[in-house]
């Protein structure tokens, strides 16, 4: 948690020597509090003050970076318990668990299914981040073969799920420069795992079944000088995971308890295809920074990744689409022209309705700074002037031979004014997007 | 090392609203955030209502129509078959009264409601057609005809709450107060309704539902904010939430698109079902108390999910 400027000032030499570049120690302290400058600019600060200030400037939840080639997954460093308080910063990593006892054919098929799990929604790409290989059979060669296949055929960041240290060491080497995650250290094996993690450089999942044991275990690992951790609370009913995760997040943010200040791993062991997704959504909503599951069906992943997109959307800054004309279907010069706002939610509510009408049309989004139709109209961001400017900018008059413009029913009042400003005939459309298919059909 | 737990000491709680007379369902009553059993009480578990229309829906996706079968042609049969599903309430939407549609008379509608109420033991939610003047006319009469049945009737907004609030007060029903994803309006509407004499334990908030991918996060955060305010002592926001997840999730392209057109999105049937179930799941985690759902399989899945989260240990 941030420390105030005045508290920092108390720890400074108060000599006003200006060597930091600020005229007084107080001014320097205030800038430090805002993280606008660094403590090492002060040549006279005491070791004790340094220690206190460095600790207080650490994020309450450690930022962990996993990577492979150019792909990076940053998780943790969250600052709030509820998205409306600010936003959730680092979208949870989503990954698939593959077991090494699948037959070779099954395994190859799974990897190729996983590679297809990529979607586009509201102008964003939704995709997976991680692929975990879990050891279920004893032959290390098979594990390494499977891992090799994954590394050859998938771009996802690997998670190595084995506690066999010899195997782990070889598997880690196969992953070369990737920053991989290893599952997992517990009370019995943590010393060996931590030593290996230090030697081979990987991030380590630390697992304990209850929060007291987890706290003890993390303290011991920290004493070994290791902090690249992700936490797992073990297999237990979903409601208990919700409580543990909530508690860990609260410990970090409300109690400034550093020991539990690491990202959380949620593993979905449920094998029911629908419940798997509900469990994954629940863990994600309740603070999991990585969610791993077995399901590889596109309909499963589309739902889960869409939920992630929503949960991590910035509540203060609405998603917007580019202001331009969008042809929907095989448009001709006779196609109707509709206008709406550039608020993603509005735009992507209108778009599928036009598609559903099966009547090829142009949809023009006006830059309303991400406001919906009524809000932007009230805020004078969706005005006859603005609409006229937009239709001219996208040269729609060169694309269609008619001069009729369809506006949302909620802004019917601007009809006359817009006709005058744009020179187009204005047709008032339905109030709700759901009315568009019927409206467009009746129009023709 | 013993960890000193961080438990919130909330000063407020959610009102308990009772719906139905024969078979009664209670909603609300939480003294903490969703499913934190270690911290507070949950006298009522979240419940599911099946959405039934008084006229056959014309624009529902094939997936839904196939799953519900011929029952959707007859509201009474639809309602009766609902008893085989593991649902808690019935939500009857009276689209037939719409002046631009069938323009059904009040008498016709009252007969339908009475038949259902007599033949089906589930508590009833009655929703109008969305046309303000027709709704206020019909719902007033329905309220009177069903006096004492403790229905949940809606929906009212800031501009039309008075008539229905008076009816609910006189006839012993509960009311749905709808606000457009706006916590201030939600609160204001509750104040206005309770000033008319209808107590807070007879109001259910519809915060306006966004389906998964279509504004779910707005509903999610409005509900979290309202619930946090209620738990912190703001009584005027301490009413249970109703979410129309069936209606909103089945509008999503992801729920209804044909496999032939969107093969990359996978199985068409399961995609529709998961869209409704996932929307429900997300909103349950934000505090939903009543889910109004459509697809029998989605209902079954969400019911199992709720039972799993709420079963006694």
**CATH homology superfamily of chain B:** Dihydropteroate synthase-like
CATH architecture of the largest domain in chain A: Alpha-Beta Barrel
Q: State the end-to-end distance of chain B.
A: 26 Å
Using only C-alpha atoms, the radius of gyration of chain B works out to 19 Å
Which chain pair has the greatest contact? A-B, 54 and 52 residues
Low-confidence runs of chain B: none
CATH topology of chain B: TIM Barrel
Helix share of residues of chain B? Answer: 40-55%
Total beta strand runs of chain B: 10
> For this structure, what is the CATH homologous superfamily of the largest domain in chain A?
Dihydropteroate synthase-like
Radius of gyration of chain A: 28 Å
Could you tell me the number of beta strands of chain A? Answer: 17
Give me the oligomer status. Answer: heterodimer
| Largest sheet: number of strands, sense, barrel closure of chain A | 8 strands, parallel
Individual helix count of chain A: 16
Share of β-strand residues of chain B: 5-15%
Please identify the top-level CATH class of the largest domain in chain A. Answer: Alpha Beta
List keywords for this structure.
heterodimer; A: 444 residues; alpha/beta; 3-methyladenine DNA Glycosylase II, Chain A, domain 3; TIM Barrel; 3 domains; 16 helices; B: alpha/beta; 8-stranded parallel beta sheet; two-stranded antiparallel ribbon
Q: Can you tell me about this structure?
A:
The complex is a heterodimer of chains A (444) and B (313). With 444 residues, chain A is of the alpha/beta class. In chain A, strand 7, helix 6 and strand 8 form a beta-alpha-beta unit. Chain A has 3 domains: 53 residues, Orthogonal Bundle (3-methyladenine DNA Glycosylase II, Chain A, domain 3), CATH 1.10.15; 248 residues, TIM Barrel; 119 residues, Rossmann fold (3-Layer(aba) Sandwich). The model of chain A has no long low-confidence stretch (mean pLDDT 93). In chain A, the strands form 4 sheets. Chain A has an 8-stranded parallel sheet with strand order 10-9-8-7-6-3-12-11. In chain A, strands 13-15-14-16-17 form a 5-stranded mixed sheet, sandwiched between helices. Chain B is an alpha/beta fold and 313 residues long. Chain B has one domain: Dihydropteroate synthase-like (TIM Barrel). The mean pLDDT of chain B is 95. The interface between A and B is large, with 54 and 52 residues.
């Amino acid at each position: 948690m941030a420390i105030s400027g005045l508290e920092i000032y108390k720890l400074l030499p108060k000599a006003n020597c200006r060597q930091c570049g600020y005229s007084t120690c107080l001014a320097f302290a205030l800038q430090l509090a805002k993280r606008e400058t660094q403590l090492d600019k002060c040549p006279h600060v005491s070791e004790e003050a340094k220690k206190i200030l460095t600790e207080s400037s650490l994020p309450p939840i450690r930022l962990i970076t996993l990577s492979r080639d150019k792909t990076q997954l940053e998780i943790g460093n969250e600052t709030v318990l509820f998205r409306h308080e600010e936003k959730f910063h680092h979208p949870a990593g989503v990954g698939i668990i593959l077991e090494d006892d699948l037959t070779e054919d099954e395994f190859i098929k799974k990897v190729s299914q996983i590679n297809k799990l990529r979607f586009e929604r509201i102008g964003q790409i939704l995709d997976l981040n991680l692929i975990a290989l879990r050891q279920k059979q004893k032959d290390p060669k098979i594990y390494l073969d499977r891992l090799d296949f994954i590394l050859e055929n998938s771009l996802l960041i690997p998670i190595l799920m084995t506690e066999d240290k010899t195997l782990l060491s070889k598997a880690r080497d196969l992953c070369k420069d990737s920053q991989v995650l290893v599952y997992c250290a517990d009370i019995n094996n943590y010393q060996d795992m931590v030593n290996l993690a230090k030697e081979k450089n990987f991030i380590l999942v630390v697992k304990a079944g209850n929060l007291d044991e987890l706290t003890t275990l993390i303290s011991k690992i920290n004493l070994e000088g290791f902090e690249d951790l992700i936490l797992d609370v073990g297999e237990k009913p979903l409601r208990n995971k919700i409580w543990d995760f909530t508690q860990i997040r609260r410990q970090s943010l409300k109690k400034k308890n550093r020991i539990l200040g690491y990202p959380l791993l949620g593993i979905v062991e449920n094998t029911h295809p629908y419940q798997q997704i509900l469990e994954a959504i629940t863990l994600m909503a309740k603070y999991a920074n990585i969610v791993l599951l077995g399901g590889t069906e596109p309909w499963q992943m589309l739902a889960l990744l869409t939920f992630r997109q929503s949960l991590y959307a910035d509540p203060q800054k609405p998603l917007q689409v580019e202001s331009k004309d969008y042809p929907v279907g095989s448009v001709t010069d006779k196609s109707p022209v509709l206008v709406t706002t550039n608020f993603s939610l509005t735009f992507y509510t209108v778009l599928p309705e036009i598609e559903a009408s099966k009547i090829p049309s142009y949809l023009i989004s006006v830059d309303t700074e991400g406001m919906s139709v009524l809000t932007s109209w009230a805020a004078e961001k969706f005005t006859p002037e603005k609409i006229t400017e937009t239709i001219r900018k996208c040269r729609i008059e060169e694309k269609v031979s008619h001069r009729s413009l369809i506006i949302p029913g909620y802004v019917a009042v601007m009809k006359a004014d817009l006709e005058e400003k744009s020179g187009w005939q204005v047709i008032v459309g339905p109030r709700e997007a759901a009315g568009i298919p019927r409206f467009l059909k009746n129009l023709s | 090392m013993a960890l000193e737990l961080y438990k919130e000491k909330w000063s407020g709680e959610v009102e308990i609203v009772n719906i139905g007379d024969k078979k009664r369902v209670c909603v609300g009553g939480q003294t903490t955030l969703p499913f934190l059993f270690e911290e507070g009480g949950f006298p009522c578990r979240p419940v599911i209502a099946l959405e039934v229309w008084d006229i056959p829906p014309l624009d529902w996706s094939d997936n839904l129509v196939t799953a519900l079968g011929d029952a959707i042609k007859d509201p009474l049969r639809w309602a009766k078959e609902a008893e085989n599903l593991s649902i808690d309430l019935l939500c009857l939407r009276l689209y037939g009264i719409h002046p631009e549609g069938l323009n059904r008379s009040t008498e016709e509608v009252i007969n339908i409601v009475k038949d259902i109420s007599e033949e089906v033991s589930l508590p009833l939610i009655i929703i109008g057609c969305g046309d303000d003047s027709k709704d206020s006319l019909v719902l007033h009469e329905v309220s009177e005809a069903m006096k004492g049945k403790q229905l949940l009737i809606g929906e009212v907004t800031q501009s039309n709450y008075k008539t229905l609030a008076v009816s609910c007060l006189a006839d012993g029903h509960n009311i749905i107060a709808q606000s457009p994803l706006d916590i201030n309006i939600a609160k204001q509407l509750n104040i206005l309704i309770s000033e008319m004499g209808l107590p807070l334990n007879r109001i259910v908030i519809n915060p306006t539902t966004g389906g998964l991918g279509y504004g779910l996060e707005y509903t999610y955060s409005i509900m979290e904010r309202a619930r946090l305010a209620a738990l912190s002592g703001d009584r005027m926001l301490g009413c249970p939430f109703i979410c129309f997840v069936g209606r909103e999730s089945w509008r999503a392209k992801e729920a209804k698109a044909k496999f032939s057109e969107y093969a990359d999105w996978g199985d068409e049937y399961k995609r529709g079902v998961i869209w409704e179930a996932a929307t429900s799941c997300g909103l349950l985690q934000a505090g939903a108390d009543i889910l109004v759902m459509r697809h029998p399989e989605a209902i079954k899945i969400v019911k199992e999910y709720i039972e799993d989260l709420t079963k006694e240990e």
